[in-house]
Please model this.
Amino acid sequence: MRAMPALLSLGAIFVLALLWPPSSSAQTSPLVSLRIGFDGYVVPGSWVPLAVRVDPGEKGIDGEVMVETREGSRANPSLTRYRWRLKIPPGGVFQFSHAIPYTDARWPVRVEVRSGRTVVFQEEVRPHPVESLVVVLSRVREGVGAVGSPPPVVVYVREEDLPVHPWAYEGVRLLVIHDLSSRRLDEDRRRALLSWIAQGGRVLISTGESLGRIDWEPLQSVLPAIPTSTRYIPPRALAARYGEVFPHPLPVAQLMRLPGSTVSLSEGGIPLMAERPLGRGRVVMWAFDYLDPSFLRWPGRFSLWKEVLQDPPRLRRILIPEVTEILPSSQPLPRGVLLGLGLGMISYIGVIRWLMRRFAPLHGWWLGLLLAAIVFSGGFWTGSAVLRSRSVSLAWATTLEAEGESRVAVLASYLRWIGPPGRRNEILLPQAFSFLRLLPPGSIEVKVEPEGVRVQTSGRLTTLEMTGIAPLPFDGWVQEVRGALEVWVTNRLSQALEDPLLVFQGNVQRLPSLPPGEGRWLTSSGRWLPFDFAGDERALGQTPSEIGLLRWTFPRLSGSATIEERGVPFLLGWIDPHALGVDPSTEPPSLWGKPPGRVLLILQLPWR
Model:
């Protein structure tokens, strides 16, 4: 009988345990999947793709996703945090793709998911560092020959694995397209791919007998040719070029060459290889399939792959982000501030002299002098602190960089500011460009919000680059005629290009204004001026910022030049950004000075 109360208590506890609902922590633990790089491979020092998928389970999440990258020493690393708002309803799923800088292979990438203030997921990802990558869009994970010293790592992916930001391709040497479905390639990935090509990326499309493997519509604007029917031919041209005889005839697609493309290899009038430039990049099409058994048995295929892979992508642009290191601050101190400082110094000297005359005969005169010096010195110190806190150094440059006959141009804004020590600075950048990146990664926070990109720093040096692809508004070429340069330029804008400058081998010559349409000039050898001299004469710009930018970019054509093609002329000019159909300006913090209302055109003129 005495055991009955104990048994009843145990039974009650057992029933309560069965009826008690499961803990909320078990329900709120989300399922998170991470994917970094291409199949986990990355090239350190470049930007890499990152994909995150969050499934919160039965309960939703109201919090954020934080991605953290580091570089430098263990004691004092440079830290960059990216934050995304995370609000998932019950039963929903959150997934996104982005590009992050991975500059130091010694550090992992840390991903954290918060629900409110509680960390519900945290993981460190260590990708596999490699020197170079070849990315293959194919359903068959073989066939691409990795040759070279050292050979690149070949990664096979599907359409959904491709990046949604162009800079995520930065470590990719070549993208090979063997299979492509337009249903699996969304608009963001297609736009990122085309932007990457325009900035120097290289794509190889392999066709062959099965033309249905590739949906041509997403790549229609960059195709060198359109494949039609197929036929079997003995590819003697391939054998002659790469030194090995084909064992069997090869099925090839009949390529109908499109305007703007060239045929680099043909067999009896049938194109075998065609290529087409897009901006600084290039798209190559093979009329044969690299997975065809006849091609795989051909020993010369290794020489062919070596030739394709030895040409690196040209991702380096005409200007480099360090342009903002040369530009001056927004504006000098206002004249009123300078006048106030001068008057303050005069007052300081006058008061000290008066105090010395007034109190010198008295005992304790030194005490009054010391108090006056402390008061005035403190006032000057306070004033200088206010000036330092307000005079944030701001440099802003917007450029339109293009090559003649390239069809597209790169529109870039470089913003650099230095905040005062110990003070938090913040800037909101509207999403007016196709992508944004920070150069170099520093101790900063980047919050991606619906209204824009919010960047916060703590008085550290920061450089931002906002970049997008724009239609080429100007086109042209140059040729040498009897010791002079004949320049042809086409202006597709509705406004004239005022006072353009022709820069060649450290010299400059001003050309007449170019109205809409075509223009032709024949330069005179006697009108060339050294660039520095022309800059000193204020002939190259309207403001000190413009002169500083031009003088920094173009005089040093030997040694550490910032221009790749040193023997190619450039056309410079200032144009209204609104004439391009885009607004590249963003609102900086409340600082002295605003971004220039004009865009610097840098048009590289190819030789004819």
User: Anything to note?
Assistant: The longest helix spans residues 365-390. The chain has eleven helices and 33 strands. The chain has a mean pLDDT of 76. The first strand starts at residue 31 and ends at 36.
